[in-house]
Amino acid sequence: MARSSTLTILVIQMLILLTSTASAQNTGPLNKSPRRRPQPEATTEATRKAQELPKVKTRTRQVRPKATDPLFTSDTSIVTVDVSVVDKNGNFIPGIPQGNFQVLEDGVPQEILNFGHSQAAMTVALVIEFSNLFQRYWTESWYQTLQATYGFVETLQPDDWAAVVAYDLRPEILSDFTQDRSQTRGALRRLRIAAYSESNLYDALTYTVDRMKDIEGRKSVVLITSGIDTFSKLNFGQTRRKVQDGGVTVYAIGLMQALRIAYDAYGRMGPLRRMDFLQADHQLRTFARETGGMAFFPRFYGEFPTIYRAIQHSMRNQYSMTYSPTNTKRDGNWRKIKVRLVDPRNNKNLRIVNQKGKSIKYQIMAKAGYTAPREVE
Fold it and tell me: What homologous superfamily does CATH list for 120-317?
């Protein structure tokens, strides 16, 4: 009997122990709350925070419209031509009416839509060759480079914007566009001792033109250089096209003319070097002519004031006109522009006289042309 009671008590204790263990497994520790499923409010809060983050636009591929969607294109192009008319001394000739101007595109006369004469402040980048190729410290060409650069800066007006770029192996911005002349002069004071013997003209010129593309209004490059290029990545043809399409007027000052004449007179310049310099002069003339600028090749320091005055007159005083090309093809081809001054009565070249009634020689400067846009497929 006692043994049966003892067995019954053991069975009851085992049942109690099993029941407690199962309960502990189902409820866990008392001080730990049960894990809950995420509530909709938490998801809404996360979404709200994500919506507050700044949105960054991504570049997506545009899909060609379907045939049922309207597609609007513009077949009208407006070409702007800035023209300078100067006498043999570089002085601007004012007062020429619209009726005496004739614009031809690929030899075809164009109708001038808008016409005006304006004076504007200058936005100019001075691109200066400064290398050990020619500008060695205290040499004649070094001094002439500084003379040309400092002299031009002194002619700038308070409302003009100017930048200074020097180049040898690569272009370096000594001073970005500013109206603060102290910054410009400070940049020129850095032109002391050249570092490299390379003179990469093409790379420096295209670099400067590319940087000026987004600048509105009239913009010019004053190129102070020997014209020699050593190891540029681009060639002359590529640079020429870049400059033509850059919307920038180039004024070139070719250095070392007197020194080259002296070397040639004493037999110190061989035929190959002579050809290099002749080719360099031709390239500078091409850059200037095709952008509506001018090229100068001074032999004496006394010529610099006249050069500065001619550049000033050309930059500040221009006739501006627009036309819509009769050739509406969007073929990406080069369109040649020619500007004439004519007598509308007989379509002959216009005769301009001075106050004494004598005919004066004049020069018309305008860009040589432009590249037509291509049809977007």
Answer: von Willebrand factor, type A domain (3.40.50.410)
